[in-house]
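Thread: Modeling a multi-component assembly for a lab meeting

Hi all, long-time lurker, first post. My supervisor asked me to bring a structural picture of a complex we are working on to next week's group meeting, and I have zero experience with this. I have the sequence lines for every component (759 residues in total). Could someone generate the structure of the whole assembly? Inputs are pasted exactly as I received them:
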Amino acid sequence: MKRRRILATVAMLAAGTGLVACSSDEGGSDASNCTNTITKQNVPVVTMWGWYPNTQLVVDNFNKQHDDVQVCWTNVGQGSDEYDKFQTAISAGTGAPDVIMVEADRIPTFQIQGALVDIKQYGFDAVKANYSEGAWKDVSVGDKVYGVPVDGGPVAMIYRKDIFDKYKITPPKTWAEYEQAAQKVKDAGGPLFGDLGANVPALTMALQIQKGASPFTYDPAQPKAIGVKLNDQASKDVLDYWGGLAKKGLVGTQNQFTPEYISGVINGNYATYISAAWAPGYLTGAGVGKGQDTGKFAVAPLPQWDPANPVQVNWGGSAFSVTKQAKKPELAAKVAYGLYADKESLTDGWTNQIIFPLNLTALKDPALVDLKVAFFNGQQANKEVYLPAAEAYKGVAYAPFGQYYLDAMEKQVSEIIKGSVTGSQAADRLQEDVAKYAKEQGFTVQ
Amino acid sequence: MTSLTEKRAPRTQPETRKIRGKVHLREHLMGWLFVGPFGIVFLAFLIAPLAYALYLSLFQKKLIGGTSFVLFDNYVKAFTDPSFLSGAWFVIRFSLVSIPLQIVLALALALILDSVTTLFARFSRLMIFLPYAIPTVIGAVMWGFLYSRGFGPLTDIFGLFGATAPDFLSSDLIFYGLLNVVTWQWAGYYMIILYAALQGVDPTLYEAARMDGAGRWQIATRIKIPLIAPALILILVFSLIGTLQFFNEPQILRYLAAGAIGSDFTPNMYAYQQAFSLANFNYGSAISFALGGLVFICVYAFLFFTRKRRSFL
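Re: Modeling a multi-component assembly
Sure thing. I ran the full set together rather than chain by chain. Output:
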């Protein structure tokens, strides 16, 4: 009996320690499970999350060039997947990395929660001249800087040269011409002309901004007040335009970046793809432009509403930010400034069209300017399209509740696709929805 | 389960009654020691999170103004929130269609397999059960590809007859698309439970029935089904709870079904979005509890109406 009791006690204690062992695991911010291998020992380590397709190379380059700090990288998912994890870590107060890759439009969302560090004090002046003012504006809130720009997403019209040749059309210069061309291809029994994807709300926003919409006005000096203007005429017009194209069967309504969509792109089911400069790299990674569709793609500037006053827009593009949970913010800032800023990494990025760099040294590199892009069958895409588009881009003020806004936009675009609302109605609903949320969150909506 | 232990307990009692006192105390202690590991896990991983979620659901956190105690405001909001209500209505509608379908299918298969004892029957049993062995996520992804118009087989099959394939990922047909995935995955599992219950029925009953002139059909409807009624009710409750908490399949198919599945498609998905995407843990907890309440009401109502046969509880 006695021995049994001892056994039981031992078993219980063992179970107890097992539980304790479980709870001491800190998860995401742990430096012991990096995707990359750190070769230098006894050097302080900074943890980082990111999803560039060539992050491994970028991190290795950084680690090779630095003896005072090493980067431990984890890929926790692309876009929303990463933001959800980061958001949870913010709420939990633990588990975030020291440095995180974020798209510029999310910075205000995390900044307002006090999750990011102003890195102006940690060597900003030394790298200030490496980026344009517009690039810095996109990663700043007020006069504080919350990220180091890496890449931008000037938007252009990628198109299938073979389809354009077959139906004898030239790249449309205006959105009116775009619709005419789409009708022409459809009447001749051709494929869809483009795609209205519900899951790319940031692109839809960019297209609205092109027509003159300015969704949010926010001054961090007055954090309680926010201007929400999602149903002005420009916003309505753009949603009506795309809703109309979808209704007439001129464009598809497939979610983008899905296997379904990619297979459609490869098969030539879409004559055009309105997308950002980083798209070719991601499409190549997904298998586009490698088989039957090799060399069939070309790129032209984004169609305009008013060709006399062209407006260029941006979709995506990202930065490295330092999180509040970083134990050594200065060291983390050093990583944020230095990562993906060396020539070797940048060159790898832009030759494979994984990034359209914002680093001015890279942008002025004649090799980048004159690059004959393989995906576009040797077209000098940077010189002809992307560089002018990037130069003309003016920057945007993003919402401090970007996640909610983009989710709500996705929902409304889905409704347009279903045909249950028109574009104008969707814009009105979106305005109502987002304004209500802003009020719930304690803002005064103007 | 509990009925078994209850029956055994009185048998040991007269023996222990004689030697009370020290031994009794010691046994008491031993009992707690044995319950301890389970108790700790139960408290730490079930009761504590539930209590914490309940606590969270009574607060509201704003981007401007911080956290404040709001009592039941989040619940009031949930029950007037069209997203939550439409999600709840969807899972109720889905339960009403999918559960009877699955149960009838599982019951029919179990009855057939019970009366046939060839090698083929054993093989079929395994094959019907197999979908349950495939993880939900993989099953959902697989069906997503099968439904795909771009590279799924449906387009080709319907093309042979010159017809257009139905798009099970469109907003009109997603209900049936999901219905098929769920039935495919769970009918086999329910079939196994019913089959096991049928195996437990005393075969002499069938013999007696045959002597009295009962046919196969009569044996099935008058003897087999009434005798496995407790198992039927068990799987009904399982499937009711599971379906009301619908999450995995729509969450996976979301990425393949363009716009047909929103982030508020089911209450669980909505709670997930609120908590982990919008950092609104308070409202997410409230939705979870509201859904818990809904599940409780539905299950209670169901058990109330079938209370005569409730011998498994």
